[in-house]
Amino acid sequence: MQKIIITGGAGFIGSHVVRRFVKTYPNYNIINLDKLTYAGNLENLRDIENEPNYRFIKGDIVDLEFINTLFDSEQPDAVIHLAAESHVDRSITNPLEFVMTNVVGTVNLLNAARENWKGKYDKTRFYHVSTDEVYGTLGEDGMFTEETAYDPHSPYSASKASSDHFVRAYQDTYGLNAVISNCSNNYGSFHFPEKLIPLAINNIKQNKPVPVYGKGENIRDWLWVEDHARAIDVIFHNAKAGQTYNIGGHNEWKNIDLINLLCTILDKKLGREAGESAKLITYVTDRAGHDLRYAIDAGKLKSELGWVPSITFEEGLEKTVDWYLANEEWLDNVTSGNYQQYYKGQYNNR
Ligand code: NAD
Ligand code: DAU
């Protein structure tokens, strides 16, 4: 595989995937295709932007003409598709935007791939990056496997489930070489502070209330983003066409326990008295349709392709907090302007 288009490469996970591919495979030609929405930020890739095997192209995957022209002119060998609207709360406010980017945008890419790669499906690959949220919610027991039936509850997860179905339909109907992975919650550097962990770090740092939805009893299964990027690398290079892999860290945390842990870490790092940051915890109105628990069984990925997480949650969280404390300018830049408006709309009346 020589030329790879990575969509959504200026976002949180995409930037880690782009960095990994650019650095690990100097012979590959990596094109980062991103619309640069509020979530896309070229600052995330400053360290590799001048590498000879990297290029950025600004564009919208919903724009079919643009996508077709791009495929015609670039003739990529593969697509790793991460571009998406990714925040559940925003999908509750504006579902249609999620249908456009996550469903229509994905189908546009599939169509361009189908046309452009005719006669060479065996030498090309469409890798679709998806989420565990397509499986819905778990009770106290059990884990999502690759066989779990889809049961999405939020407009976000419904749009991702739909895009997964289209990817499989293109594999089954046209013979496109497609692979899908469904990953649990990621955390790490460059995570936009609308999501729980970076939002909590930022608020604790600034002595602002830390909003916890409902009773804080929902459970998420957290994975360090660089381990996700490595899993994508392993699956991209080794999976058979048509395969699906679940990716996760066997690392379930109740939201409130996680927030308390972050408070303890930040008390130490900011030189506060023990228990001071936890006073910021504020219970707010729950998210509508809030899934209770996610837990991923990543056994197939381990047994077939040998992938396991490389670091513990404690190590990863410490690294993450350190990164946010050391990158104040990044945090200030992404939380100025539109973020303030978003924050007021999302939290002021909860
Ligand atoms: P993100 O919101 O941080 O980044 C999304 C990127 O896509 C941004 O750079 C944005 O500019 C770009 N984008 C959005 N709409 C676009 C469009 N129409 N055309 C081109 N580019 C567009 O998202 P993320 O958290 O990095 O997630 C990346 C992918 O991984 C998504 O598909 C998401 O569903 C999936 N995923 C995320 C997680 C997680 O915990 N964050 C877990 C599992 C799967
Ligand atoms: O599971 C994978 C998914 O993880 C990805 O597909 C999504 O793109 C990603 O955003 C993430 O979805 P979640 O909804 O689980 O992540 P979020 O960080 O928004 O919320 C994590 C948990 O914390 C969830 O139970 C809701 C809760 N929460 C969130 C926010 C933003 C709060 O209690 N307070 C908050 O302010």
Report on this structure.
With 350 residues, this protein is α/β, with parallel strands linked by helices. It has one domain (3-190, 223-250, 290-311, 338-347): NAD(P)-binding Rossmann-like Domain (Rossmann fold), CATH 3.40.50.720. The chain is built from twelve helices and twelve strands. It has helices at residues 12-24, 64-74, 88-93, 95-116, 155-174, 196-205, 225-238, 255-269, 299-305, 313-326, 328-334, 338-347, and strands at residues 3-7, 29-34, 54-58, 78-81, 125-131, 178-183, 185-187, 210-213, 219-224, 244-247, 252-254, 281-284. It has a seven-stranded parallel sheet with strand order 3-2-1-4-5-6-10, with helices on both faces. Nicotinamide-adenine-dinucleotide binds at residues 7-8, 10-14, 34-37, 39-40, 60-62, 82-86, 101, 105, 129, 131, 160, 183, 185-186, 192.
